[in-house]
Write a structure and sequence with these properties.
926 residues, alpha/beta, four-stranded antiparallel beta sheet, elongated, RNA-binding
Length: 926
RNA sequence: GGGCGGUUAGCUCAGUUGGCUAGAGCGCUGCGUUGACAUCGCAGAGGUCACUGGUUCAAGUCCAGUAUCGCCCACCA
């Protein structure tokens, strides 16, 4: 620790907290002093707390989702760091294959270019240039968020080690037979011109048309008959690719006709197709008959496979129709749909048209309607991987927060299908497969501009090192597979590729051994399938152990109207802009306390304002304490904290016990991952108890000089800053740097970021003090209330009598100075008997532990007094009835725990006394 | 078609082993420029905890069902 924090910078600060003057210097101070490194200030024997950061896409800028992630992870890391555990928060970035390529292609389009104009190599260079711009911007933004991650370990999915991890995993899975290549029906994005995986397709309900089309039977000589089979379809343009009509085998309507042939009812087509039976057909939908188009429908493809029917491709890669479409060839699929329907109608084959609500798949990235089509792609057979990924969750090796997400995860895993991992893109990890131009000459098709496609039946050579000769023929004319991998393939390895896996022979695997598996994986629930599921599958496969112990899923941040943020709605909130406006701590606190795990939250300016106000309140409360410390003559060599043990005033004992109480609560909430509730509890404590009560009470002794509250003020401020630091790191550190010189031995670090977090065992609770001070609070509040009711001038001192219950007398007397000041009650007379207080021209209130009397003279209005007391009495009576009914219940006495019964009895007794006092008070008014 | 979540004050939301009078912020009403803070203080109004039934001594909390809004998954063309 070398860099001292320059306190002089705070000289200019006063009044309102100005985050913009504080945040950057504080961050630099932490980073320069090495606080983000994992071993600093930590006990090396302890188990490390590790978080691998979800890598933001190198595309674009940080959005609110990142802000939530960084806030929560930073809070967790800071908490564990303050617990003295070795902590590692490993940051990184994702090359984000399709997303980044899409952005760069859009840039090119604005220049009137396509990636083909540049060629593969130049295009990749162009993307690297772009990444060179966005990378530093993104990390700078994360720094602004206050992320205390270990920047020295920043990883990128295209770095050498992650590349090696991809290679190794691909080779292992291929060798295991879990990766294979083949012609299957996949989801095709006709704009990006690439295959997609199932999860990259988003279904939207849309109103379409359901056309009922008659396929006529033909006689033996092929002549068309009047009857036929009516099917219902949403895609008449795919009729040229029909290979059969299928019905359910048990469907009685069609039994006699099975095996007969029908003719394609489309102009220019004479093709006959069979009527077949398959149990995949739902006899209740539409007409109960289904046209089978294996080339463009998942279900049809499967039915086709079962019946040995070859798919026909009628929709081309770009969404236009192929030559197979006859006179419709070259038309766009939507255009053709309309025309085909029109022709069917004109030719008398269109039986009926109805509107139809159905789900249409769109590409997650480009938004265009996905075309299912048959294509040669690489797949991961996920069955075994999923089985293990299910096991580790079922058996609790991985815990998902919130727990309910576990069933979502398991359900998805149970229904998992082969994962299409090849993409016809240029940006990403090139598939490490080669083909021999000689042996696979028939399968290698060279297209324009040196592009090639690899047909089915080619023999890929997949090895750890780039192959140079064909193992079959010994030739050296090899060509690499042109495709790249799904970006989530490399993301799925993130948990260990960032820690040095696969470590080369002889290379130490320290990081892996020490930090794998990580402690918490924190991310949005929207990428549970994309990412979390894949990380668990691949982590288990490569490492033989699940990649993390806990998955913490946060919800989506929505706008003030509860809408999802989107560019098209133009309602995207920029986190940095909000931070400029309200301060980063305010943004963080709002995001962290705004929701519970897995639930969405709305971000509004009102909430941000509230958090900003809290930061400001803390700043000013601290300013008060610091100001008093500066004026105090007390020694600073040992710090004022040395005298903490002398704190014997009731309010001291009370706030120390309350500090301990909130410490215990917060500790428990932390352990249950209830960060939001913990933050709220701390805010309530600091504002509602420490500042509103203790600081106000402390002023009495500061002025009288009758024993100093400074040790307690200092200690509780110190604890408050420590407790709050994970949520609001900047303002707490800024204050703590000013407080530290006053802490003496209690200053256990040079920076709050490395100070010790308050612990449940730090101090005994003092329940007697808590109870007694609660009575003082009640008395003060009641006096204020009476004064407000009678519109007594706020600044005016009023003679006030307090008649405490006998048991309370000494505590109330001890706190008389506080009551006097906080309630503006002077002279304050504490008397043992009600009879010692005046009875005429008074306003009064009856509390559980005391009665108060204010002789307000002419201000007192008997009618108003009757109303006030009557209302109180009604309330007491109502509660008393409830309490007595409960006690009269034999079951309650018999079955409720003893302490609950006891409490109920005490309450009833207290209420009876209040009732009697109120009644006699009322009687005396007459 | 399955699965999940929400429904608590005018608004936005807390309330996790069932147990004192259900809380907060914002908004609203009244008072207030007391030397930390008007980004503030004090006091107040405001809720049959969506509905129905059940379990229990006791239900906002557990169970069943209903309504309604939302999300996810799914090969009904």
């Amino acid at each position: 620790m070398t860099t001292e924090f320059d306190l002089s910078r705070f000289d200019q600060l006063s009044g309102a907290y100005d985050a913009s003057l504080v945040e950057d210097p504080i961050y630099a101070f932490w980073e320069d002093n090495g606080w983000f490194r994992p071993t600093e200030g930590a006990d090396s024997d302890a188990e490390p707390f590790t978080v691998i950061m979800p890598p933001p896409n190198v595309t674009g800028v940080l959005h609110l989702g990142h802000a939530v992630t960084l806030t929560i992870e930073d809070a967790l890391i800071r908490w564990h760091r303050m617990l003295g555990e070795p902590t590692l928060w490993l940051p990184g970035l994702d090359h984000a294959g399709i997303a980044t390529q899409s952005v760069v292609e859009q840039q090119l389009a604005r220049e009137g270019l396509t990636r083909h104009d540049l060629g593969r190599e130049s295009f990749e260079e162009r993307v690297w240039d772009w990444v060179g711009l966005t990378r530093p911007r993104i990390t700078a933004q994360a720094r602004r968020m206050g992320a205390s991650c270990d920047w020295e370990r920043t990883a990128f999915t295209l770095d050498p080690t992650p590349r090696a991890a991809v290679r190794r995993t691909f080779v292992d899975l291929f060798t295991d037979g879990k990766i294979y290549r083949g012609a299957r029906i996949i989801n095709w994005d006709p704009q990006m011109l690439t295959a997609l995986s199932d999860v990259e397709v988003e279904y939207q309900e849309e109103e379409g048309k359901l056309w009922h089309v008659r396929y006529p039977f033909v006689d033996e000589r092929g002549r068309e008959l009047d009857d036929g089979v009516v099917i219902a379809t949403t895609r008449p343009e795919t009729i040229p690719a029909d290979v059969a009509i299928a019905v359910h085998p048990d469907d009685q309507r069609w039994q006699p006709h099975l095996g007969r042939r029908v003719r394609l009812p489309l102009r220019g087509f004479e093709r006959l197709i069979p009527l077949i039976a398959d149990s995949g057909v739902d006899p209740k939908f539409g007409t109960g008959a289904l046209k089978i188009t294996p080339g463009h429908d998942q279900l049809d493809f499967e039915i086709g496979e079962r019946h040995g029917l070859e798919p026909i491709r009628v929709v081309d890669w770009d969404g236009s129709l192929t030559v197979e479409a006859g006179l419709y060839a070259g038309m766009d699929r939507d255009e053709a749909r309309v025309l085909v329907a029109q022709h069917l109608d004109e030719d008398g084959y269109l039986v009926q048209t109805e509107t139809h609500l159905h789900n249409v798949g769109h590409s997650q990235r480009s938004g265009v309607v996905v075309e299912p089509l048959v294509s040669n792609q690489w797949f991961v057979d996920t069955d075994d991987l999923a089985a293990e990924a299910v096991r580790v969750v079922r058996e609790g090796e991985v815990r998902i927060v919130p727990e309910r997400s576990t069933s979502v995860y398991l359900q998805w895993m149970d229904n998992i299908r082969p994962w299409c991992i090849s993409r016809q893109l240029w940006w990403g990890h090139r598939i490490p497969a080669w083909y021999c131009r000689v042996c696979d000459a028939d399968a290698i098709i060279s297209g324009e501009e040196g592009q090639i496609t690899i047909d089915e039946g080619a023999h890929p050579i997949v090895e750890l090192e780039d192959p140079t000769i064909c193992p079959t023929c010994g030739g050296a004319d090899l060509v690499q597979d042109p495709d790249v991998l799904d970006t989530w393939f490399s993301s799925g390895l993130w948990t260990h590729s960032t820690l040095g896996w696969p470590n080369a022979a002889g290379e130490p695997a320290n990081d892996l051994a020490r930090f794998y598996p990580s402690s918490v994986m924190e991310t949005g629930y929207d990428i549970l399938f994309f990412w979390v599921a894949r990380m668990i599958m691949l982590g288990c496969y490569n490492m033989g152990a699940a990649p993390f112990r806990t998955v913490y899923l946060h919800g989506l941040v929505r706008d003030a109207q509860g809408r999802k943020m989107s560019k098209s709605l133009d309602n995207v909130i920029d986190p940095l802009e909000k931070a400029d406006q309200y301060g980063m701590d305010a943004l963080r606190f709002t995001l962290a306390t705004g929701s519970t795990p897995g639930n969405d939250m709305r971000l509004t300016d009102e909430r941000l304002e509230g958090s900003r106000n809290f930061a400001n309140k803390l700043w000013n409360g601290a300013r008060f304490v610091l100001g008093e410390l500066a004026q105090s003559t007390e020694t600073q060599s040992t710090g004022v904290m040395g005298e903490l043990a002398d704190a014997s005033a009731l309010e001291d004992r009370w706030i120390l016990s309350r500090t301990q109480a909130v410490t215990e609560t917060v500790d428990e909430l932390w352990r249950g991952f209830q960060l939001g509730e913990a933050g709220r509890q701390i805010q309530d404590f600091i504002w509602g108890e420490f500042f509103d009560w203790y600081v106000e009470a402390s002023k009495v002794r500061l002025r009288s000089g009758d024993g100093s509250p400074l040790p307690v003020l200092t200690h509780v401020l110190d604890c408050s800053l420590r407790l709050l630091h994970p949520w609001m790191p900047f303002v707490t550190e800024a204050i703590w740097q000013q407080l530290r010189p006053h802490l003496g031995q209690a200053a256990d670090a040079d920076a709050l970021i490395g100070a010790r977090y308050p612990q449940p065992g730090d101090r005994e609770r003092d329940l007697a003090a808590e109870g007694a001070f609660a009575a003082v609070q009640e008395i003060v509040t009641a006096v204020r209330q009476v004064r407000a009711d009678y519109r007594v001038q706020a600044g005016q001192w009023v003679e006030t009598y307090v008649v405490p219950q006998t048991s309370m007398i000494s505590d109330v007397e001890a706190s008389s100075a506080i009551i006097e000041v906080l309630a503006r009650a002077r002279p304050l007379k504490i008397v043992a008997e009600r009879s010692q207080a005046p009875h005429d021209q008074i306003a009064s209130a009856v509390l559980p532990l005391a009665e108060i009397v204010l002789p307000l003279g002419g201000l007192v209005d008997l009618a108003q007094e009757r109303t006030r007391l009557g209302k109180d009495l009604d309330n007491v009576l109502k509660r008393l009835r409830g309490a007595e009914a409960k006690l009269a219940n034999a079951g309650f006495r018999a079955k409720a725990p003893a302490n609950v019964v006891q409490q109920a009895e005490a309450l009833a007794e207290e209420l009876q006394r209040q009732r009697d006092d109120l009644a006699s008070r009322l009687a005396s008014l007459d």
